[in-house]
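Hypothesis: this fold can be encoded by more than one sequence.
Test: take the structure tokens below, design a sequence, compare later.
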């Protein structure tokens, strides 16, 4: 929601916090969601390389988890 309002710095900080927490908890599903959110935010900022990096990380995690929904 913050990202769509143009509040990208706040959105990215929130998504980074969610990513860190998911990794600490070993919650790969939440980690994948956070990576997708970070990618979407980067796309909105036209940060193409950053968006691709986050999307690639989310894809690799989905493939590792055999999660075809998020692949």
């Amino acid at each position: 929601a913050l990202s769509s309002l143009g509040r990208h710095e706040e959105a990215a900080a929130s998504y980074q916090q969610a990513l860190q927490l998911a990794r600490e908890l070993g919650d790969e599903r939440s980690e994948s969601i956070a990576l997708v959110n970070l990618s979407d935010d980067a796309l909105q900022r036209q940060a193409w390389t950053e968006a691709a990096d986050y999307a690639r990380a989310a894809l690799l995690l989905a493939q590792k988890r055999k999660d075809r929904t998020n692949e």
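The first helix runs from residue 8 to 25. The two ends are 23 Å apart (CA to CA).
Hypothesis status: open.
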